[in-house]
Amino acid sequence: MSRVKISNPFLDSNEPDFLSHFGITCTKEICQYFNDVKFVCMSGSHGRIQLYAETFHREARICLSENLSKTDRYVMYKTGPVLWVNHGMGIPSLSIMLNELIKLLYYAEATDVTFIRVGTSGGIGVEPGTVVVSSGVLNELLEPVLILHVMGEVIKLDAILDKNLCDELYEFGKSLCIPLEKGITMSTDDFYEGQARLNGAFCNYTKSDKNNFLKKLYSMRVRNMEMEGVCFASITHRAGIRGAIVCATFVDRLNEDLARKDQAPNIFHEYEMRPFKVVSTYLIEKLECNKN
Amino acid sequence: MSRVKISNPFLDSNEPDFLSHFGITCTKEICQYFNDVKFVCMSGSHGRIQLYAETFHREARICLSENLSKTDRYVMYKTGPVLWVNHGMGIPSLSIMLNELIKLLYYAEATDVTFIRVGTSGGIGVEPGTVVVSSGVLNELLEPVLILHVMGEVIKLDAILDKNLCDELYEFGKSLCIPLEKGITMSTDDFYEGQARLNGAFCNYTKSDKNNFLKKLYSMRVRNMEMEGVCFASITHRAGIRGAIVCATFVDRLNEDLARKDQAPNIFHEYEMRPFKVVSTYLIEKLECNKN
């Protein structure tokens, strides 16, 4: 059994810690409630993670908790050993959530925990609606590291996903007849210029600059871009947690920049349920196995 | 009269643009509704910005719109010429919001627009509850620029606030007997290690490293740290929009890392209303002036 690792000598204080962005005070009673957690599924949007939690509750027939977060920064739901948490958009917001969640699971003495990011992204050279299971992550400088700035110094932390978990999720997806690819995920801090879009408020490059860059990414086996993966992979690796990323793609960026959800909302709803379907099928099988 | 500037030759398409993170399709009728906007107030939390909008609606006796955002990414309220929008936590989330809001105000042909970030922060060498009006912003490397990564290249963009607006807001604050400081704001991408806290899941530095760093910041006239200012200053400057940042401080980081909101929620509620009070007093006077 492997406990969630933290690495901070200052945390052993006598007073219960307070997770300020969840509004949770880490008393023994509260932490005990999280002791059985084995899986944490996360996504940017709070509405989407609530939808996922409710759907899983119905499909797996496991009780659904109320929203366990006491602030409006994040939401958190629990269905037995599975937590559902949103992380907002971008690395800073994800990083706050992961720091506080990892402390919570550490205090709770949870063991053998797996984190899965179930997100949305822009595809590169894949049909819209394809689910990408990340085989690796790259930052904006095309390096597989999270860059952290600590007291004016630049620190690079390895961003590594769990290869076995990725392979397993990919096999589950294939069995469901969902359009699926395995590929590298690039994470950026900026959605418009950072992802070479032509439809932000500012754009100082040409269409051919953009196309050349996206083709270069494709040749490097990058299959989608989003805004959190490299931080997710780095922090889970650092905490000794198995991590995987499964994202829907809403557009093929080789063809277009904008997902016109206003013109076809039902299609995008179907797309965003696909990575959930992969993950929920996997979870239900794993939980059944544990029962037997 | 000065229009909101965008800088993107690709935006003049025949089809109405779609602001995907607000869920707003930019038809002529919809944009017309935003033509009279003169001020945009923003904050991270959606609950707080809703509270600010409702309080302003009552105090200024101006009608309050419903939530104009059609997604759960952001909320947006309108009270006459004042918009209230949340931006989530961190630069990536703020940057998406600003790109789409600036496009909206550009299509709406809004003129002479002022943006004010009304936020929360950790203070440096100031009493908890002090309001800091930012005189400037620094990034994590202590430079007054936003670092953007575009197609693998590092681009540094000046991050400049409107000096006159900051001075004016500071004078309004002083007249209200609210504890107030003018000082530099440092913006980081990471809340825990990025701000030299000792209470994250990871910490590889000593208490004295931390103290030395925070004292160095104090000597550079930094009075608070948050996670958006340098992007706010850069994008508003780039779009020709007057920008100012007014933040409550919840702790003095020279003394502590954690704001224990669980132990004194009312005090923190009072703190978070202080920067709003400064800004709402300013807005009401400006709007009255425009009437006469």
From TrEMBL, chains A, B:
Molecular function GO terms recorded: uridine phosphorylase activity
InterPro entries for the chain: Nucleoside_phosphorylase_d (IPR000845), Nucleoside_phosphorylase_sf (IPR035994), Uridine_phosphorylase_euk (IPR010059)
GO biological process: nucleotide catabolic process; uridine catabolic process
Binding site for phosphate: 73, 117-120
Protein's name in the database: Nucleoside phosphorylase domain-containing protein
Family, similarity comment: Belongs to the PNP/UDP phosphorylase family.
GO cellular component: cytosol
Record lineage: Eukaryota, Metazoa, Ecdysozoa, Nematoda, Chromadorea
Domain Nucleoside phosphorylase positions: 38-280
Matching SUPFAM superfamilies: Purine and uridine phosphorylases
